[in-house]
Amino acid sequence: MESYIIDWFSLIFRWLHVITGIAWIGASFYFVWLDNSLENPPQWKKDKGIKGDLWSIHGGGIYEVAKYKLAPEQMPATLHWFKWEAYTTWLTGMILLSIIYYLGADAYLIDKQVADLTQFQAITIGLGFITFSWILYEALCSSPLGKNSTVIAVILALAAVAISYALAHLFSGRGAYIHFGAIIGTLMAGNVFRVIMPSQRALIAAIEKGEAPDPKWGAKAKLHSTHNTYLTLPLIFIMISSHYPMTYAHQFNWVILLVIVAITALARQYFVLEHKKIHKPSILFAAAAATLALAIAIAPKQIEVKTVAPEDKAQLVIDAQQIIAQRCSTCHSATPTDEVFTVAQAGVLLDTTAQMQQWAPRIKARTIDTHDMPFMNKTNMTADERMVIARWLSTLK
Q1: Higher confidence at residue 214 or residue 20?
Q2: Under 8 Å between Cβ of 16 and 91
Q3: Segments making up each domain of the chain, as ranges
């Protein structure tokens, strides 16, 4: 019953996390597009302090949007703020991290083949990385180096390399990826809380006092909003990465993570420029080529399997099915015996010969190509047993 209750909490907060994440990312994408799509307004609008405007159509209506350089002539009675999308996404993400990776640290976070950690040690290290990464980022942005975008980009890139390497050598592949994502999400939500919102409050306060707003507040908020723009696509990848063991379960998973972060940030650059009517399709082609090159580079090596003699086939089938029953069916069964996974994950059942054959491609991908299954190898499948399964799979072609 405890596992069932935890599953429901996981479902509810994952659902909320996705909903609020869509709202946050959607608003972020819209305002970046809006800012980059503004056109030079007519003189009468400039005289009112309008910096740029645009016209658009959506949902059967025509909209006119204008952005003031600093402040309007008179503040409107209602001013819409965008903050709770970011805060709620971060809060639900941290709750999910706690439910899945901290309460279930022994199952999801700790991989004894990577580092022999206790649950307390793993949680402390995870929270430490998230906290100190945010402190480092804040210190860099607040320092004189923060005024040089190239220098800070290089420093942050080097920090990302160090962090991804360290996480991959402390946690499971899934745990390393999700903590890298939690760091990115914390930086993004921190930008909203520590920079963007205070900047907007300072702007409003100056207007209400009848003072000229300090342009530095708007510039600072825009800088951190731009940072968030380039972090969005890498974060989305990490959110779905647990479905793709060829990335997190690879020997060089930390390198793969960094490459995908770079590729997705590059793809985002294409759209940012496109908003400004700067056409650079070469950027998108470069991102696509890099993705293809990565896919080729990390493709699983073909295992040399000895040809199975006809007279040995029957016994091989029996041996392979016994191994799957012993090592895999504890979780992937109509009646699982595993203490954590009380329902067959992903609906994969391996109770019968027909079911094993049905899921043969998945068995190959998860058990032979990536060694992602058994989960964390908690049933201690040996290399020899994997070879027996590989030989059996070769007879199904």
Answers
A1: 20
A2: no
A3: 2-32+71-297, 38-69, 310-394
